[in-house]
């Protein structure tokens, strides 16, 4: 079938509003969030139902057209930027955005893939429950993308990754088969848990169209604090201290470099309410049991007494808490405004973070004179975004190689929560054994024998990532 014949048939399935072929209108879908990479597609296709997704995939596979599923396009690993010359469509899930049901007592939510994360969270709050997946991009990120990327965020330390919130999935396979598993069961050990295969697969095995998510009770009390600490080792010791004092009430434990907050202050005019220091930590604790604030105050007093913290503030109101979080959540955009950077999304054993920070900074500074550093992230998970602000003309690749080699040497991962996409394919091959890669390749072949689901992402393509800018 000709290209125009194919697009005509797709249009019949999704309707005129569901098909974008105009280059200008396609551009936002085809350009990654950082604006560094642009992909190609015959069209952007925007279905409204699972049946439409299925029909589109059927004719795409019959015509040898690849399919790149996309959510809110907030990912940082180029998972939806397809640059292969062979024909493809970009399947935007944004019109499948309904919250189909929320069960307060069973604590589950049935939601379509294109539902924006924030909208899903608000629907849970409306019945006195929470969906504790919290990302800076939650106002745009969509549930399907969050699942496909197995996104992390700031609440992983208490609530786990996206994977831990999924009870059931509905997916559409490359050949159009709809596999329904939308079961709201807490316990279900029947056979292989196939839905897990699609979580973190970044659209390479099929399209997530809907999910049943696990909700959590909404805690009555929340305490947020920001502290200045003299070193990353002190931040780690402070983590151990609050674990002793506050146990599993800790829902976020974030580490922020002085430079990270300075970037936010420069580009957004926000001001940290405490003394500048080499490092800061942002801690949030939640509980429904009374006495949380008092226990938190005791922990902070111990932190000051032992010299782990030099200055600190405990939010007195929800607004103050939000202001503290705003300092944290603007770091990525501030870095973007500052100029070119090499991003890293690494994890090491939690207790190795201070050693990693020291070694990484020394190694990069040696090879890239003039490099500046923006390290921040989820200390409670051992996951640091060791981002390097690059001097003029310097490629991200050099920094990536240095940091990734160190991380692998320290027994860590070079993709803690952002996925592999097309940015870290080489790193995946370094991190996984031939047996593991073989298993992944076998699963891919089984579910997508023609290789049409998001080709080039995660596993495929011998083509190197060299030359990519960020
Ligand atoms: C965060 O933790 C995100 O804010 C983005 O994972 C990290 O900008 C980054 O590199
Ligand atoms: Zn992060």
Would you mind describing this structure in some detail?
The protein is α+β, with helices and mostly antiparallel strands and 470 residues long. The protein has helices at 3-14, 23-30, 50-62, 117-125, 143-148, 156-159, 195-198, 232-246, 258-268, 292-305, 318-329, 331-338, 353-367, 396-409, 425-431, 434-447, and strands at residues 19-20, 43-45, 66-70, 88-92, 99-103, 108-112, 129-130, 166-172, 178-181, 207-214, 216-217, 221-229, 250-257, 279-287, 311-314, 341-342, 346-347, 372-378, 383-389. The strands form four sheets. Strands 12, 13, 14, 15, 16, 17, 18 and 19 form an eight-stranded antiparallel sheet that branches. The longest helix is centred in the middle third of the chain and has 15 residues, at 232-246. Residues 152, 377-378, 385, 417 line the site of zinc ion (ZN).
């Amino acid at each position: 079938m000709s290209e125009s014949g194919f697009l005509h048939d797709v249009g019949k399935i999704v309707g005129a509003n569901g098909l974008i072929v105009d280059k200008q209108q396609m551009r936002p879908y085809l350009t990654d969030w950082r604006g560094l990479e642009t992909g190609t597609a015959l069209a952007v296709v925007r279905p409204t139902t699972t049946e439409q997704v299925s029909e589109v995939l059927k004719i795409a596979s019959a015509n040898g057209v690849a399919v790149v599923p996309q959510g809110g396009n907030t990912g940082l690993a180029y998972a939806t930027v397809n640059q292969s010359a062979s024909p493809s469509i970009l399947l935007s899930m944004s019109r499948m955005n309904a919250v189909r049901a929320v069960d307060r007592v069973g604590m589950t939510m049935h939601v379509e893939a294109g539902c924006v994360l924030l909208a899903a969270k608000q629907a849970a709050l409306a019945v006195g429950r929470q969906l504790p997946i919290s990302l800076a991009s939650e106002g745009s990120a969509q549930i399907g993308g969050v699942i496909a990327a197995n996104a992390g965020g700031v609440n992983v330390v208490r609530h786990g990754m996206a994977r831990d919130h999924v009870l059931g999935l509905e997916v559409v396979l490359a050949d159009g088969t709809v596999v329904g598993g939308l079961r709201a069961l807490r316990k279900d050990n029947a056979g292989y848990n196939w839905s897990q295969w699609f979580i973190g697969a970044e659209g390479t095995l099929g399209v997530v169209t809907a999910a049943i998510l696990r909700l959590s009770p909404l805690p009555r009390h929340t305490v947020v604090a920001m502290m200045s600490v003299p070193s990353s080792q002190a931040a780690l010791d402070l983590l151990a201290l609050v674990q002793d004092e506050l146990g599993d009430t800790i829902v976020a434990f974030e580490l922020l470099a002085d430079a990270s907050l300075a970037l936010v202050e420069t580009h957004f005019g926000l001001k940290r309410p405490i003394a500048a220091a080499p490092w800061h930590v942002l801690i949030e604790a939640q509980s429904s049991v009374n006495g949380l604030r008092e226990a938190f105050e005791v922990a902070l007093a111990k932190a000051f007494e032992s010299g782990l913290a030099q200055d600190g503030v405990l939010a007195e109101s929800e607004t103050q808490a939000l202001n503290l979080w705003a300092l944290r959540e603007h770091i990525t955009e501030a870095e973007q405004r500052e100029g070119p950077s090499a991003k890293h999304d690494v994890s090491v054993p939690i207790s190795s973070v201070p050693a990693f920070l020291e070694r990484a900074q020394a190694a990069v500074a040696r090879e890239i004179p003039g490099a500046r550093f923006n390290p921040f992230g989820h200390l409670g998970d051992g996951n640091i975004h060791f981002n390097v602000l690059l001097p003029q003309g310097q490629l991200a690749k050099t920094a990536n190689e240095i940091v990734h080699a160190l991380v692998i040497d320290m027994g860590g991962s070079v993709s803690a929560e952002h996925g592999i996409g097309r940015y870290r394919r080489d790193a995946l091959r370094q991190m996984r054994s031939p047996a593991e890669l073989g298993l992944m390749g076998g699963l891919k072949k089984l579910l997508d024998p023609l290789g049409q689901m998001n080709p080039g992402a995660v596993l495929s393509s011998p083509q190197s990532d060299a030359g990519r800018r960020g």
